[in-house]
Specification:
Number of helices: 7
Helix content: over 70%
Strand content: under 5%
Order of helices and strands: HHHHHHH
Largest sheet: none
Low-confidence stretches: 4-18, 257-267
Oligomer: single chain
């Protein structure tokens, strides 16, 4: 009984898996028809429905990448190519074709950049994918041509990047020289200001010295006048004393030699 139950479960799982695979194939074929009609947006919807049933369906992943590539959604297309390439059962030729398509995504992504230098990494990835694809399918002339073109774009990107770096270095040197000149001008201005301040200080010191000398001269002159006045006063006093002495001597002499004076009153 148990054995029959297990067999029944296996049969149900097999039927469910078959139904799932049938649904995935159906949605994928529908997407392929829309893709061949160049209805890439409709094809994208059908491939996504297939992946909702089985996210590991590598054909639906790869074909969705193709539809996104046609819609110029290169980054999203790369992501689905990456998932498709995880399938371990891929034969060499199928894997080579997927690598070729992923290389196309990288190449177109690089060409969409504003200049070649910005697409440098995209071109490098494209070259790597084309080289891996050729290892698996050496006779694929389309891959060989795309590899040659990607290598050409890579060289241009490297040359442009080198020129930009050299220009950037030249601009940096010019900026360094300008900064150096600005600093020199600033130092010269500071030195001139310092010299002017020193000169002003010396002038102030000289003016102060002149004022001090003038004040000293005035004090000396004042002291000289005061000394002169003192000497004049002393000479005057001495002269007065000498006159008084002479007057007293003259008076004494008259007293000694003169006659008596009358003291009577005249009535």
């Amino acid at each position: 009984m148990k054995r029959l139950f297990i067999i029944g479960i296996c049969i149900l799982l097999t039927l469910a898996a078959g139904a799932q695979n049938s649904s995935v194939r159906k949605q994928t074929r529908k997407g392929n028809r829309e893709y061949n009609r160049k209805h890439y947006d409709r094809a994208e919807v059908d491939y996504r429905r297939a992946l909702q049933v089985d996210s590991t369906a590598y054909r639906a992943q790869h074909n969705l990448g193709n539809a996104l590539y046609r819609s110029k959604e290169y980054a999203e297309a790369q992501r689905h190519y990456d998932m498709a390439l995880r399938e371990p059962s891929l034969d060499p030729k199928t894997r080579s074709g997927m690598l070729h398509n992923r290389g196309n995504c990288h190449l177109q992504a690089g060409l969409q950049k504003d200049d070649r230098a910005q697409g440098l990494e995209d071109f490098r990835q494209a070259v790597s994918d084309y080289q891996e694809a050729l290892k698996l399918d050496p006779k694929n002339d389309d891959t060989r041509y795309n590899l040659s073109y990607a290598m050409k774009m890579l060289r241009q990107a490297q040359q442009q990047q080198q020129q930009q770096q050299q220009q950037g270095g030249g601009q940096q040197n010019q900026q360094d020289q300008k900064d150096k000149q600005d600093q020199q001008n600033k130092n010269d201005q500071q030195n001139q200001q310092d010299q002017q301040n020193q000169q002003d200080q010396q002038n102030q010191q000289g003016q102060q010295g002149q004022k001090d000398q003038q004040q000293q001269d005035r004090r000396q002159q004042q002291q000289g006048r005061q000394q002169q006045k003192k000497q004049d006063a002393e000479r005057l006093l001495e002269a007065v004393k000498n006159n008084e002495k002479n007057s007293l001597k003259e008076h004494a002499k008259k007293v000694e030699t003169g006659s008596p004076r009358r003291i009577e009153k005249d009535w």
